[in-house]
Each structure stands twice: as structure tokens, then as C-alpha cells.
Amino acid sequence: MQNRRNEAYSEQQVQELGKRIASSEISEQSFVLKTPKGTRDRNPVQMRVLEQVFGVIQDCFKRHDAVSIETPVFELKEVLTGKYGEESKLIYNLEDQGGELLSLRYDLTVPFARYVAMNKIMSIKRYQIGKVYRRDQPAINRGRFREFYQCDFDIAGNYGLMLADAECLRIIYEVLRDLNLGDFVIKVNHRRFLDGLFSTIGVPPEKFTTTCSSVDKLDKATWEDVKQELLQKGLLPETVDLIGHYTQIAGGAEVLDKLETDPRLANSTDIHDTLREMRTLLDYCQAMGIVSKLKLDLSLARGLDYYTGVIYEAVLIGFNCDDKRQSEKVVASAPERLPSSKKKSKKKSKQEVIEVEEDFGATEGAVGSVAGGGRYDNLVALFTPNSLKVPCVGVSFGIERLLAISEMLARRRAATGDTSDSTIRATETEVMVIVAHKGLIAPRLQLAQELWDAKIKTAFSHKAQPKLLDQLQYCESTGIPLAVLIGEAELQRGVVKLRCISTRKEREVTRVDLPAAIRSELEALRGGAQQ
Amino acid sequence: MQNRRNEAYSEQQVQELGKRIASSEISEQSFVLKTPKGTRDRNPVQMRVLEQVFGVIQDCFKRHDAVSIETPVFELKEVLTGKYGEESKLIYNLEDQGGELLSLRYDLTVPFARYVAMNKIMSIKRYQIGKVYRRDQPAINRGRFREFYQCDFDIAGNYGLMLADAECLRIIYEVLRDLNLGDFVIKVNHRRFLDGLFSTIGVPPEKFTTTCSSVDKLDKATWEDVKQELLQKGLLPETVDLIGHYTQIAGGAEVLDKLETDPRLANSTDIHDTLREMRTLLDYCQAMGIVSKLKLDLSLARGLDYYTGVIYEAVLIGFNCDDKRQSEKVVASAPERLPSSKKKSKKKSKQEVIEVEEDFGATEGAVGSVAGGGRYDNLVALFTPNSLKVPCVGVSFGIERLLAISEMLARRRAATGDTSDSTIRATETEVMVIVAHKGLIAPRLQLAQELWDAKIKTAFSHKAQPKLLDQLQYCESTGIPLAVLIGEAELQRGVVKLRCISTRKEREVTRVDLPAAIRSELEALRGGAQQ
């Protein structure tokens, strides 16, 4: 009835809007209804997972005395110029419509450095979660998007050796522990150690960078492939063999012992300085209870463009995707703080993206890098060349990948009937006000209002004459655990029926006691779900 | 000591980066370090206020069974084409770098309609908070930005007359009540009523839109100005007089009585239909306990481009900026859902933006529109002309203005020494681990770890040898209420000193009891602050 009325009202409006479309150059049918290439909408269930994952991460950052800042989605083009090397071609520029030339931010690190420099900040511990933009060839099913979230935590300031660095590792530990995505390991290396090593074993200084980018591929390519690449780059065979030898070294503090007593490395001050630094880092991580999660890994490179000290990368190792019958696909983008890690993701690799689908089940123990970072002491100085230096260290979480894995786990829990899990619901609604027979609009609204005022999350049907069955089905399909049924007779007696959707049990409650009764039912349901 | 080392390490890196800059066309000194015109960073304190305001608003949306979605920051250019009339020139386009033509979103409503159409959704109640972009002439101190937040709540679906509309008004009520920014009123009108009225009193149909946009100025301009404008637009003097007569009408249900019995309007079916609709709306608002906040106001127009039914706008009335000595400035952008409201904000007006500064104190009882919306039943159909219609009604909060007012109130509370207010702090940190004498790095980290694991928000100094006074001052300046002091002697005895920063009282606590002791101190401080 109302709908017909609404339609009648809008006839003229429809015509007006139709005219407007006709007068524009684009006809209403001439384009496909879609989001831009490499972007996507997030639906309500995905948003709930996002909210929960962001909540865990923010709680961790706040526990560590971090502040948060926000920067614009676009920056002056010059701010980004010269910061990303070859990757600059992937920057989105805005059309020159007069005025300043602007670009969409490519990461959160350069805007952070701009913020620190611009505000002459000498020390700050900040986090920022925001979308960044890369005009890369998208690979949606492999998790590479053109618009994706980054989630960064950085500590800027002139601080004691390894103190801020150790806290960043602790941050990675806490976030991955609290997200509960299975076991993980944090690989650690030192950029200056790699420089010292290369220098010592005969890599010419001008080939440090290119050697590093070959080594960087070792987590996905075989040594044989990397070896050939290094030989093609003109390194001597004995140097290449030594690279092969050292980049296989990985482990705990014993690695440091071994390297300190390595006669080949005995004469390099750089190497021994960095080894002492790494030992300090391990000591601090020991004090913070995370040393068992660390693995010194000399094959970790993370590029050379940017970092000046410790570098690290966290990998999920306990994440087994063994149920190949589920036709799920986890789409996730790699944590990309750096141009160099960008290059990585261009390489096809089963390990790189966790996929669970009908015909391409992920291998058991599939590994995904979900966080990475390191020390970068010179970026802020690029914006303030004549000022005091502001050294920085930070970590960036591969939030799209963490979200994708969390979504998949939530779907899996829902599929196995684990009702204690609420992540798969799109809302948190606790109760629906249901009318047992026709109409009762004002009483419906009045009861809803009483519940809202009692801070109870309450739904009601917007239909004038909703069917009882439809209302109950709405509860079931959206996971609302309780319903309050009202009818004329109950209203006159000042009572309502409180119904548990899953058990279908109903009991009469006086209206004044309703909020308390709902709370106790919810409490009981939560208790039952936990058992 | 460590700093010098860090510097030494980065020499080569600095040179490399310097070279990169030199090789680019832009020299490092050639641009001013700033954010793009019309944009800004948000600092940590502003972010805390934002988080709290968003929290209140999201709580309200969730209490009402709403889901949330997210859409990309840019859309295909065609999606936005033909939706904003003259305002289209304010859309930011991305540079054509090959591939699709893209534009930054101008509001959240058109992307929402695109989402509903694309996913063939027949009903949804969703909220979305996100930034939108308008290449308008910015007026930062009057609160007009080129990048600003919108916060939208919309109900789409074929529903009973006025049921969803009434819930939108309830949403406005709850948000403004819970944000605690003083008294407010929600002005309500009906777009079809205005059409019927104009038709009846002799406005030619082709002049409805332009008449409406003149009427729309009545909240800022005098009637005399609007009258002259209407006469210039060619309306007959007696018609203009009648517009003046009717647009002065405002009030509660008695307005409907008056209009229903108005002999001049007796023959218009449209008018009497809409008056019955308005009465239904008032009935529902009565049931939801908000009718006292509503004011039927026939001068409310909100443009005609878009809306098809009820329209509304909320105004803060209790917001007095009477302390002119405070050199504060509240920058806030008007809630802009519509091109038409955009036009409004071009007009200079004291009422439009709340400003409190040395030489331009806001008048007492300054009024600011902080939310607006209405029914728009035809927008989704623009994307799916051959499908069933999906009627919509929604509200958009003037979130930048709400943030600016909240920031100002927080600063004011802080200035008056109201320590119970925590909004002005940049962090939520509860305790700082402080070393009483040199070093003690590992013990410091170990204690911090114990507190983090106990979910206590804990800071520590990253300096190797921090001074006691510096650490205490850090607590005071950042508002950390408690400190845990450790020294060699205490460590050996398994105790620490727990210090209240404000009272300077210290007591010894055994290490194992520390988390509980901290919690009880925090509880006591909160209790004291509330008294």
C-alpha cells in the first residue's frame, strides 16, 4: 500500500532524473556496473571481520603507549617524488584541474616522514591504519589490489640501541598471538651485516643492491635459480658459493656465536658491530619473552632502498589449509612497505598467497608473510636536510592477508557449526521486537525505544504488516539470538513473550523487567556457547 | 652513544638517497612542506576525539541493527556522472594513465546506490563512515575542506509508510543525545508538500526548483532578501507573499491541524496526502519518545535535486560560545549530503560555522546544522533502470563539525582543570615503568612485558639511560596516572614502588601483586575523578 504510494510520488522525479541522464554524454546503459579495476567493496560480514581484526591490532598499539595520526589520502606530488625508485610509475596522479599537482599516497611511511618533518617532531610512537594506492597490475585472486589497507606502527626518535627495535618485534608478537591465526616465526636480519658480508666475500660495492634483490628471492625461488642469476650479474663463482653458504644460515643465538668465530669474517668491524647489536636485540627480546619466536635468517633481505639497520618479517607457519572440499578462496595482499617487497609479489608462488579452493588446495603448512619492517634512519632527513636527524624503526602488517585469513577461518568455524563464533554475523543485534499479529506499529516502536534506551541492540520490522514467520526467519538468518513477541492481549496485561530463537522456548516477562531478563538470557547463551 | 653509531651507519645511505633526489627533476628544497590545499593531518589528540565521536555514532548504528559496508575511494567516472548537477565540476578526476577513467567519490550516497544496484540488494540498513572529496574553494577557518569525513546511515527497501523515516529521526536523536553537545532540534518538512504548496499558490512547475533553492536560504538570509530574489526570478508578488506566509509556519502537530483546515490548500490532494504522512510520522516519533525534539518547519527545503519525501535537518541550539577570551577556533564543515546544501555553504554566515576566537567570538546561542537527510526513492533506479525500485531514506551527519565542537569542548574542559575528562589525552596509557637509576634495560622490558600480558597499557623510556625526572615529566605531560619505579635493591627483594603521579604517593608492592594493585589504583582514581 505504502509502496504504491511512494511510486506514485516519484513519477515526476524519475522523469527529471531521466532527463538529466539523457542530457549528459553518457547514457545510463553504456557502462558496466562495477568497482574500478583492482578495487572492491567490502560487504557487511567482511566489515565485521575487519572491525575485529583492527580492534585487536589497535588494542595492542594502545597497550604500547602509541598515539595515532591521520594524513590525507593524497599528497603533493613532490612529496612522493624520488622516494620509490622504479615503483614511481605505479603512483596514481590526480588530473591537473588547475592548482597543485597531487598523487594518491603509495604507502603510509612517506606521509609519516613528511608529517614528522613538517611538524618538527623529535620523537613519536604512532600508528596509522589507512588505504594506499598502487597502479599495479591487479591479481585479485592472488590478493594484489590497487586499493588496499596498510597498518603501520613506527617509533621515531634518538633512542638507545635496539630498544625501539625490540618493541617493534614485541608488537608483531602480540598482534599475531592475539589474532590467533596459528603459530608464527619472526625472521630477523641486519642490513649492515649483509653489506659487511658482501664486502668481505668479494661482492663489488656497486653490486650490493642487485645482489640483495637476488638474495631476497630465496624464500620463493630455489638456490639454483638464485645462483644462476647471481652469476649472470657477473659475480665470481666463489663469491656466489659463499653467498649460498651464508644465506643458508638461520637459527637462534648460536648463529651469532658461529659468525663471531668465523675466521673469514674476523677482519670486518662492520660485521662485528652488527653482530653485537643483534646480540643486544636478542637479549631484549629474551627479557620481553619473545626470543623463542625469533629466527636469525641471513637470507632475509627486504631490499636495500630504504632500511639502515635491523630488518624483520613475520611468517605464519601453523596455517594449514587441508580441507580441499571447501571452495573458499583467500585473497590477500602481501605486506608491502617497500618497493622491493613489491617486486617479490610479482613472482608466482604457491607459498606467497594462501588459496583454498576446489581445484587448488593450499599445501599443508602453507606459509604467508604477514608483517615486515625494519629501521630506516634517513627518510625524515629527506624532508628536512638541514635539521637534526630523526631515526625511525617500524613495522607494517599485511592487513589484507590477515583479513583474508580471518575471514576464511570465520567461515570455516561457521560451517562447522561453531556457534560460539560471532564473526560471521553482520550485526551484533541482540533482540528483535516481533509483532504476533497485524499492525501494532506504534507499540512496536515504543518497545524498541525502551530497549534502545536500555542500550540493548534491537531490531524491528519496517513493514507495516509483517508476517510472524518472516520476522522469526529474519532472526535466524541474521543470528539474532532473542525475540520479544508482542500481541494485543499481552500489551493490555503489561507483559511480553521473551523467546530464545535457537531453543524456541518462550516465557512471559513483565515489561518493566524486560531489559534485565534479556541481559540474563544473553548471559546464559554466552555461557552455553563457551562450554 | 647509540645515536652516534646510528649516524655512522647511515652515511652511505644518505649519499645514495641524496643521489636519487639529485637525479629526479625536483630538488629537495623546491617545494613547501605542506599538505595539499584544503586538506590537513589530524594530530594524536584530534584522533582521540575522532575515535570517541565515531565510537558513539557506531554504537548507535549497531544498536539499530545496521550493517556496515565499505566502497573504494574512487569510482568509475561514469558512476558519478549526471548525479551532482552543476557540482560535477567539483569532482576530482584521476589522471588518465591508461585504462579506466576514475574519479574520487563526492559523497557516500551515490556509491551506496551503486552498491545496492550492483549487488541487486532489495533491502539493507547500512552505515558507512569515510572521506569524500570536493575540489571546492577551501575555507579552512570556516570549516570547508577538500577532503572531509561523511558519516551516513541509510535504510533501503520497500517498507511501511514512515517506518524507516521515523527510525532515521530516532538515529539523529540518539547520536546527538549521546554526544552530549547540548540541546538540539530536528527540523522536518516534506518535499512533496512543498511541491503541492507551490503549485497551489501559483508557482509555475518549471520554477519549483529555483523557488526551492531561494527558500532554502531562509535559515541564513532575511525574508526581505529572499523575497527580492523570488521577485527577480519572475514570481508574481502575491505568490511571493504567500511563500513568505507559509514558510514562516513552524511548530508541532498544531501546524498540521492549521494546514489541514486552510481553505487555500483544501483542493490539493498532494498536500493532504503529505499532511497525513507527516501526522503518521509524528505518531511514530511520539511512540519513540522523540516528538518533543521535532519541529515542522515549512522553510526547510534541502534542495529538490534528490529527495522525494520527508526531509530533515538537525540543529544544535544549546551551544553557547560565550567565552571570547579563549583564542580557540572551531573549524567544521557543514553536513553536505547534497549539492544543494553545498550551495548553502558558499554563503557567508555567522550562523553557519561556529567560531570561537579572539576577535570573532561566536554569538551566544550560535546555531549549527549537524545532520541532515531525507527520503530519496529514485537514486538506485538510475543504476538499474529495468529492475524493481529500491526506495531509500537516510541521514548524513556533519561529522567534521561534530568533531570540531567536540575538540573544542575537550580543550575547554582541560583548560578548566576538569581532570575527569580524558579526551584531551593522546593515549590511554595507564602506567609507565620507570627506572630509578642508570640502565636497568632488561628489567625494564621484562616488567613492561608482564604488564602488557596482564592487558595493562604500559609505557617505558626507549633511552638507554633515562633520567628519573624526565620519565616523571613524561607521565605528567601525557597524562599517565601511575608509575612503577624499579631499582636494583627493589628488584632483588621482588618488589616495586607504585606511584600515583598526581598525589606523588608511593607504596611498595610485591611484583606478583602488581597488576591487581595497578587496577585497584586506577579504579580509585576513576572514582575520585567522578566525584
Automatic annotation (TrEMBL), chains A, B:
It catalyses: tRNA(His) + L-histidine + ATP = L-histidyl-tRNA(His) + AMP + diphosphate + H(+). L-histidine binds at residues 107-109, 134, 150, 154, 302, 306-307. Pfam families: HGTP_anticodon, tRNA-synt_His. Its EC number is 6.1.1.21. It comes from Taenia asiatica (Asian tapeworm). Residues 330-350 are annotated as: Disordered. Coiled coil: none annotated. It is an enzyme of class 6 (ligase). It comes from the Eukaryota. The keyword Aminoacyl-tRNA synthetase applies. Belongs to the class-II aminoacyl-tRNA synthetase family. PANTHER family: HISTIDINE--TRNA LIGASE (PTHR11476:SF7), HISTIDYL-TRNA SYNTHETASE (PTHR11476). This is histidine--tRNA ligase. GO terms for biological process: histidyl-tRNA aminoacylation; mitochondrial translation. Keywords: Aminoacyl-tRNA synthetase, ATP-binding, Ligase, Nucleotide-binding, Protein biosynthesis. Residues 38-405 form the Aminoacyl-transfer RNA synthetases class-II family profile domain. The keyword Endoplasmic reticulum does not apply. One of its GO terms (molecular function) is histidine-tRNA ligase activity. GO terms for cellular component: cytosol; mitochondrion.
